[in-house]
Each structure stands twice: as C-alpha cells, then as structure tokens.
Amino acid sequence: MSAHRQRTARHRTNSGLLRPQWRSNTDRLTREQAPLVVRSLLTAGVDTTVHGLAACLYAFAAHPGDWNRLRESPALARTAFDEAVRWQSPVQTFFRTATTDVTIAGTTIPADTKILMFLAAANRDPDRWHGADRFDLTRPPPGHVGFGMGIHRCVGQHVAGLEAETLLTALAGRVERIEPVGEPHRHSNNTLRSWTSLPVQVRKDR
C-alpha cells in the first residue's frame, strides 16, 4: 500500500468514517490476517457461487412449475438457492484431516489420516432426503452440506446467498419463463460440478 493510501486509510479510521472490525467470535484478527480473509471471500467463492446460480437456472428451466411458484412468492429465493445447491452440489468433494483417532460406523480412522468427504452424496442421501434426486422448492432448506458443516462451514455462504437472492428476486419480477434451448454440457472436474455450456432463454414478463 502506498504511503498516501495508508495516510488516507488512517484518516478515515480516525475520523470515524471507517472503523474496521477484526474481531471474530472467538479471537481477534490481526491487520495482516484481515485482508487475507477478505481476499478469501472475494476469490474462493467466485466459481462456486457462479455454479450455484447456474444450478438455479438449470433447475427452473427444467421445472417451470417451481419458477411460477417463485414468481408468486419471491421470498422463496433464498430457499431456491439452498435447494439448488443441495440438488447439484457445486462442490462435490472435500478433503479433511482427522486430528485424533475417531470411530465412525465401526471403522476407526487414525489421527492424521486424510478423509475424502463426498458432499454431493450426502446431499442426496435417501435416508435424509425424501425424493433426494428431485429439485423441490417446497423442501425445508436446512440440513444440506453444500457449504460444509460445523466449524468448517463456508464463511462466505451468506454473501453467496445474498447474491443469489438478489438475482433470483430481480429475475422473478421481470422474467415470465426460463426455457432450455439446447443440450447442456458438463464441465469435467473432480471437485466442482458445473457446465461448460447451459443454453437457456428467458421470456420477458409482458
């Protein structure tokens, strides 16, 4: 950061125009850590948010009845995004490391073992979800692991949800139908579920 920008930032902070809040729920972020957290929010969520929004368009193009339901009740926009994330799981898998020996379903996982979690499989677990392979706008949204779980839950999930809610609400007020106009093509990736091409057209509300 240039000396001029540093002086400007200090002036804004001291004058009350900008009061940075670096405290988390459990500890205080340092000045060095704070920009790294912001950068993570701006970069780590780009592809996954885009793929989540694409999943919404894909869902509504394939389920016009649900699009009509959203148009009638725009407040369902956040629910629609959550259900699309559960249904398509933009992040398919994720690695974690066991910090201690742990036994799950009779199998012991030693400490320091790498664990590959299949988030997409959990999001379509028939023991957890009725009609798991179906996009359902009436499904209660809580419970999916598309954003992770526990202390590893995605820190930017609320930003992604706000972006999706804003976009879907705006579309619901302007677009009568979202229609497929060609064969969608998946993007080959071991971790992310997305499309290289998702041809749809929107019909403007009269």
TrEMBL record:
Transmembrane segments: none annotated. Residues 181-206 are annotated as: Disordered. Residues 189-199 have a biased composition (Polar residues). PROSITE patterns: CYTOCHROME_P450. It comes from the Bacteria. Keywords: Heme, Iron, Metal-binding, Monooxygenase, Oxidoreductase. The keyword Iron applies. Pfam families: p450. SUPFAM superfamilies: Cytochrome P450. Belongs to the cytochrome P450 family. This is Cytochrome P450. It comes from Amycolatopsis bullii.
